[in-house]
Amino acid sequence: MKTSQHVLVTGAAGDIGSAIVEHFLRDGASVTAIDIKSESEILKRYSPADHGRIKAVCLDLCDQAAVSALIHSGDPLDCVIGNAGVGGTAAFVDIDATFWQHTLDVNLTANFNLGQAAARHFIEHKTAGRIVFTGSWVGSVPWPEITAYTVSKAGLEMLAKQMARELAVHGIRVNVVAPGIVRAGLAGELLKTDPVYTKRAGKVVPLGEFQTASQVADVVGFLCSKAGEYITGTVLLADGGCSLFQFDSDINSK
């Protein structure tokens, strides 16, 4: 990555978001770090030595006009990473309309807002930009009691493919990173607080260990690097094999 690159990352005050920001900082980029949390809370995640290359912004990504204004008012961008998201568990019959809508708003509609503004920005500046969304392995594999989340991530995958199809003519690449069970962020919180989730999760990773936030960030960085320049419309599954069906005998043999 060139030192002149400018990268925008959402969810930058979270575990995975901050790992992504730090990855790009190590590569010499400047970063616009966005979160629903305050600018001071965002900057707390990073070394003071890096603050000069970080523009922290408190922003509600569901506010389409605000997202567009931010992207078009700043320095030209090279990469936009839509990483912010929400989770939560509920049996399908117990999901209420507010929870359902909020999950779709933050995980899907906010990324539509971000992706559309980024695409218009890249086209205006004639930039062959990269857009990467943080999806999930459960975007294509159902998991008990997280229906709102899985549906939002499945929609995100198709959003990225539609964008990639239409934006390729402008040289814009759009992809999804689909992590597995990360011992950080939303899954990390469930591993700490939900014994049922923890028991299930402990049985489904063939590699035998949960993912780290930095491992997710490395895959995002790959898609934004020269090595990823011929990849678009792809869901890059980096899940440690979670999505591979395991028989009871596989689990019991461990």
Explained architecture:
- This protein is an alpha/beta fold and 254 residues long.
- It contains nine helices and seven strands; from the N terminus they run βαβαβαβαβαβαααβα.
- It has helices at residues 15-26, 39-43, 64-73, 97-125, 147-167, 185-193, 195-201, 213-223, 248-252, and strands spanning 6-10, 30-35, 54-58, 79-82, 130-134, 173-179, 235-238.
- The chain has a seven-stranded parallel sheet with strand order 3-2-1-4-5-6-7, sandwiched between helices.
- The longest helix has 29 residues, at 97-125.
- The chain is globular, with a radius of gyration of 18 Å.
Would you summarize the structure shown here?
The protein is of the alpha/beta class. It has helices at 15-26, 39-43, 64-73, 97-125, 147-167, 185-193, 195-201, 213-223, 248-252, and strands spanning 6-10, 30-35, 54-58, 79-82, 130-134, 173-179, 235-238. It has a seven-stranded parallel sheet with strand order 3-2-1-4-5-6-7, with helices on both faces.
Report the end-to-end length measured between terminal Cα atoms. Answer: 42 Å
- Low-confidence runs of at least 5 consecutive residues: 249-254
- Biggest sheet, spatial arrangement of strands: 3-2-1-4-5-6-7
| Form type | globular
Whole-number mean pLDDT: 92
Sketch the topology as an H/E string, one letter per element. EHEHEHEHEHEHHHEH
What proportion of the residues is helical, as a percent range? 40-55%
The biggest sheet, with number of strands, parallel, antiparallel or mixed sense and barrel status, is: 7 strands, parallel
Please report the number of helical segments: 9
What Rg do the Cα atoms give?
Answer: 18 Å
Query: Strand-residue fraction?
Result: 5-15%
How many individual β-strands? 7
Class by alpha and beta content: alpha/beta
